[in-house]
Amino acid sequence: MRVEERKLGRIFQMVLEPGDDFYGVVNAFVKEKNIRSGSVFLFGALQETHMLTGFKDMEGFNVDSRTFNDWRELVAVGNISWPDKPPAALGDVTWDKPQPYVHLHMAISGGPGKTEDVLVGHLSGGEVKGMFMDIYELV
Length: 139
Known about the structure:
By secondary structure, the protein is mostly beta strands. It has one helix at 22-33, and strands at residues 8-16, 38-57, 60-68, 72-81, 101-109, 118-138.
């Protein structure tokens, strides 16, 4: 086991507006406020959603990328870090220095009229319909 003691720093509550590019807005805010580590909690809805799901099969780990063009409600929890290299989940991108990485695990509705369907995975992007997001900075 590895343990690192942290203290609670600043707390931010964000209201994302309809049409906001989720990661465009959030990553810019994290850079502006220089949030080096934190916990993230959000709930709301996206008008367009990009997500990754994964499963382990006989061949190893497989990733399924999905895009939804109808609005979906979601809840998500995650963390903020600044890795030296882009995580594999970001695909084919390169960095010349550490960048903020907001890593979110989510549960998302099946869409309008399909509330009994729920999917889980990683949020990889989207256009906001309306959303609240809390960031708890860890120092």
